[in-house]
Design goal:
The complex is a heterodimer of chains A (about 675) and B (about 200). Chain A has about 675 residues and is an alpha/beta fold. Chain A is built from 18 helices and 17 strands. Chain A folds into three domains: about 1-360, NADH-ubiquinone oxidoreductase 51kDa subunit (Rossmann fold, 3-Layer(aba) Sandwich); about 375-495, Fumarate Reductase Iron-sulfur Protein, Chain B, domain 2 (Orthogonal Bundle), CATH 1.10.1060; about 605-680. Helix content of chain A is about 50%, strand content about 10%. Chain B is mainly alpha-helical. Among the domains of chain B are: about 35-100, Electron transport complex subunit B, putative Fe-S cluster (3-methyladenine DNA Glycosylase II, Chain A, domain 3, Orthogonal Bundle), CATH 1.10.15; about 105-165, 2-Layer Sandwich (Alpha-Beta Plaits), CATH 3.30.70. Chain B is elongated, with a radius of gyration of 27 Å. The chains are: A alpha/beta (about 675), B mainly alpha (about 200).
Chain lengths: ~675, ~200
């Protein structure tokens, strides 16, 4: 008793509100923890914790050993799942899980082989030999999730906050909820394991102080803990019994007088809370390498013949526990998972025990009556007095009922810990917590919807932008093509004009040097031409050149008629002028021809002429061959296009027709040249 | 007389001064775009389904800002109409049945072995939530699908189904507590909680 007095010397603070429901602790805490035998079938949900479901790593038919990992944590906030005993995986499928919804979730079904053979473990006698990271990874490997009820992955809570140190490590041993005595019995029987677990957690977190908060209705547990903490820095703090002192934020307030700000977690104010059962599991994980495969569950309520605490393998079906632990259903049959304040009705008895199942409560009706039908709120304000989070439950009720979620949020609905104190004190038996839970899930859903609609908006806008960009790019490409074509036309026209200028030989002396240079060049050329006028062969060449240029120009004109109507006029003019030029060249050639015939002195020249004509003919022959080859090529691609690319056929047909004309012209030119040659030779 | 002149001058001076101030404020604190359209767009569900007759939610938001009725959005349903009525301070009205009915949230699923890879649905999807290439199987990115229904019609082989969203455990919500049994004597004889 002296130790008890010593441990209460520390000042204990108080939190607002709270209630004193009848405890019913002694129903189940009189007997020692019994170990449940291995059931014929184990149902292991992949989600036994807060966070993402684990990913199954075994297949149906696999043999597994006790402690072997069967599902792997998916991401940071998740935990592994292990086989609680050796056996065979007989099924993987959806089974009912302990959840207020009564829904099903993916489970691994294990048929035990009764050998209960461990897989290889990695025990470590002295945790001091391990690094902090090694301890975290051992805890993670053991798949430990908070065993007080929330099921938050423990390894995450072992990572100290980055900026500041952990000032206080609190072990939550309050177990304030009526009926439940799992932690109480654990502390009485395995206090040393708990204390060693705390030491390991403290080693990882390096807190300034380390407290165990426990309610004064568990004197045996306090005594056991006090003897176990002797010689350590750990302090046992006894707090007065009041529901919900075991709430994380409430216990922090009791022990440190600090409040966790709204929307924050205890780590934000340098406090870490762990449950006692979690501490024991951490010890077993580090010392023996044992994963979390069993837990202590309270079976209580008057429908059980003998209430007590049982250490059950995770995955044990509740129906099997009921059968083996003297469950005598009375009317109405009621089964509650968890305690009377925060628990929820069990929908399906084949639901398994999971990492967070701390109690199975089967009360008789006179023991824990069903709540009366709700009546109108009389605004008595008792709920506000009882609320441990200092909220206004009445206001929240009105807002939740009227679906005024925004106002409910403004009244800090999300700070509600759903302890049920307000519903407990409500004289109108209004299921207040149910309203809050409904409002909370509605708001969460709305937030999710909003998030999704924001994403959809971004995607939609991105798509619209993309389509516009693609359209603009297409337009730009089309414009570029049109510009290039127009430029080519303009260049051709310019070239034609230059030719024209060459012929016209503008008399006016231009002022700019470029013009002057062009004129000089033209003048040079014309003198050269004049010098050579005596040679009929050269005159003929000039005529041929002019003719070719004219042909080219005519082509350009045709082209322009199709593509660039604005160029047609210019080109027509140029063509007319060139025609004149060609005629001139022809005339001067014919003139020189006749002169040559008249003047014998130019006999040498006339002898030379056939030689040149011979060269001309061979040139013309190659031209013809080339044009024919091109035509053949074009006809081929036309036939192919007819099969594959109908949109190109028209264009190609035009091109082929044009080429045919060219071939004919080349042929004609060749025949003419041959005729001329014959005539000359003759 | 001088009193009246003074008064007029003083008022004129004040008018000029405040006019200048307001003019400056109008330029300095100019709001780009129409914030009301953004607010309305924020309320609309962004399914981009076009059931309202506009090509997307934003055009409808612009329509509403220009005085169009607020009851043309079936995916948003009553709650959206209520929110719009609150925002615009108008009377909430019933959903216009002409534009469709409020249904459960759906998501498009492509029966992949029937897909011929025509890409028509990809072009129809307003949020680019369908993946695939020409002559290759297409699939819907479920998390991004708004359930707008626009991909169903263009599919030449009818291999797209609209199925109700099954969010599983994560999507489960606490039901609303029954508000019927206000008087104790109206209470129903209670049912057994666990029907084993």
């Amino acid at each position: 008793m002296s130790s008890l007095i010593a441990s209460t010397s520390r000042r204990v603070f108080d939190f607002h509100g709270g209630i004193h429901p009848s405890e019913h602790k002694s129903d189940s805490n009189q007997t020692t923890i019994s170990r449940a035998p291995i059931p014929p079938e184990l149902i292991l949900p992949v989600q036994q914790h807060i966070g993402k479901p684990a990913i199954i790593t075994v297949a149906v038919g696999d043999k597994v050993l006790k402690g072997q990992r069967i599902a792997q944590a998916d991401g940071f906030v998740s935990t592994h799942v292990h086989a609680p005993t050796s056996g065979t995986i007989v099924d993987i499928g959806d089974r009912p899980i302990p959840h207020p919804s009564g829904m099903t979730e993916l489970c691994v079904i294990l048929a035990p082989d009764s050998e209960d053979k461990w897989c290889e473990l990695e025990p470590e006698e002295h945790y001091e030999n391990l690094s902090i990271e090694a301890i975290q990874s051992k805890v993670r490997a053991a798949g430990i999730a908070g065993m007080g009820g929330a099921g938050f992955p423990t390894d995450i809570k072992l990572q100290p906050p980055q900026q500041d140190k952990v000032a206080t490590l609190i072990l939550n041993a309050a177990e304030c909820e009526p009926y439940i005595t799992a932690d109480d019995r654990l502390m009485r029987e395995r206090a040393d394991e708990i204390v060693k677990g705390i030491e390991i957690i403290a080693y990882a977190l390096q807190p300034g102080e380390c407290l165990i908060g426990i309610e004064d209705n568990k004197p045996e547990a306090v005594a056991a803990l006090n003897s176990a903490v002797k010689g350590t820095r750990i302090e046992v703090v006894v707090v007065p019994t009041k529901y919900p002192s075991g709430g994380e934020k409430q216990l922090i307030k009791l022990l440190t007088d600090k409040e966790v700000p709204s929307g924050k977690i205890p780590a934000d104010i340098g406090i870490v809370c762990q449950n006692v059962a979690t501490a024991a599991a951490v010890y077993r994980a580090v010392r023996f390498g044992e994963p979390l495969i069993s837990r202590i569950t309270t079976l209580t309520g008057q429908q059980f013949n003998q209430a007590g605490n049982v250490e059950v393998l995770l995955g044990t079906p509740i129906s099997w526990l009921l059968e083996n632990y003297g469950y005598q259903p009375s009317n109405p049959e009621r089964l509650i998972l968890g305690g009377p304040m925060m628990g929820y009705a069990l929908h399906d008895r084949d639901t398994p025990v999971i990492k967070t199942t701390n109690c199975i409560l089967a009360p008789a009706n006179d023991e824990l009556p069903l709540s009366d039908p709700a009546q109108a709120c009389i605004r008595c304000g008792l709920c506000a007095d009882a609320c441990p989070a200092e909220l206004l439950p009445q206001q929240l009720y009105w807002f939740a009922r009227a679906q005024e979620h925004e106002k409910a949020e403004h009244h800090n609905l999300f700070d509600c810990i759903e302890c049920g104190a307000c519903s407990y004190v409500c004289p109108s038996s209004i299921p207040l917590v149910h309203y809050y839970r409904h409002a909370k899930s509605e708001i969460k859903q709305q937030r999710l919807d909003h998030e999704k609609s924001d994403r959809a908006r971004i995607r939609f806008e991105a798509r619209v932008e993309r389509l516009e960009r693609e359209q603009a790019e297409k337009e730009a490409k089309r414009q570029a093509r049109a510009d290039a074509a127009a430029k080519a036309q303009a260049e051709k026209a310019l070239a034609a004009k230059n030719e024209e200028n060459k012929d016209a030989m503008p008399a006016n002396s231009g002022v700019d040097p470029k013009q002057a240079a062009i004129e000089a060049a033209l003048a040079r050329k014309s003198t050269v031409q004049q010098d050579k006028t005596s040679s009929p062969a050269e005159l003929k060449e000039a005529w041929g050149k002019a003719q070719a240029k004219l042909d080219k120009m005519l082509d350009a004109l045709d082209n322009a008629k199709e593509n660039a109507p604005e160029q047609v006029e210019k080109l027509t003019r140029a063509v007319e002028k060139n025609q004149v030029r060609v005629n001139q060249a022809k005339q001067s050639y014919e003139k020189s021809q006749s002169e040559n015939a008249a003047t014998p002195s130019t006999a040498i020249n006339s002898n030379a002429a056939p030689a040149l004509s011979q060269a001309d003919i061979s040139q013309l022959e190659t031209n013809l061959a080339k044009a024919e080859a091109k035509l053949a090529n074009m006809s081929d691609s036309l036939t192919q296009a007819k099969q594959d690319q109908p949109e190109l056929v028209e264009k190609l047909e035009r091109a082929v027709a044009k080429n045919k004309v060219r071939v004919q012209a080349a042929n004609q030119a060749l025949l003419d040249a041959r005729a001329t040659l014959k005539q000359e030779e003759g | 007389m001088s009193l009246i002149t003074t008064a007029i001058l003083a008022l004129a001076a004040l008018a000029i001064a405040f006019g200048a101030l307001l003019g400056f404020a109008a330029i300095r604190f100019r709001v780009e775009g129409n914030p009301l359209v953004d607010q309305i767009d924020g309320i609309l569900p962004q399914t981009q389904c076009g059931q309202c007759g506009h090509p997307g939610c934003r055009p409808y938001a612009e329509g509403i800002a220009n005085g169009e009725d607020i009851n043309k959005c079936p995916p948003g349903g009553e709650s959206t109409i209520q929110a719009l009525a609150d925002l615009l301070d108008v009377e909430p009205m019933a959903l216009d049945a002409e534009h469709g009915e409020e249904t459960v949230k759906k998501v498009a699923i492509i029966r992949e072995d029937e897909c011929i890879g025509c890409t028509k649905c990809i072009q129809a999807c307003p949020v680019d939530a369908i993946l695939g290439a020409a002559k290759h199987m297409h699939t819907v990115i479920e998390s991004e699908c708004t359930g707008c229904d626009l991909c169903v019609e263009p599919c030449p082989v009818d291999c797209i189904d609209m199925v109700p969203v099954d969010a599983g455990l994560a999507g489960w919500k606490w039901n609303s507590p029954s508000q019927s049994n206000i008087i104790a004597t109206d209470a129903q004889p209670f049912k057994s909680i666990s029907a084993a």
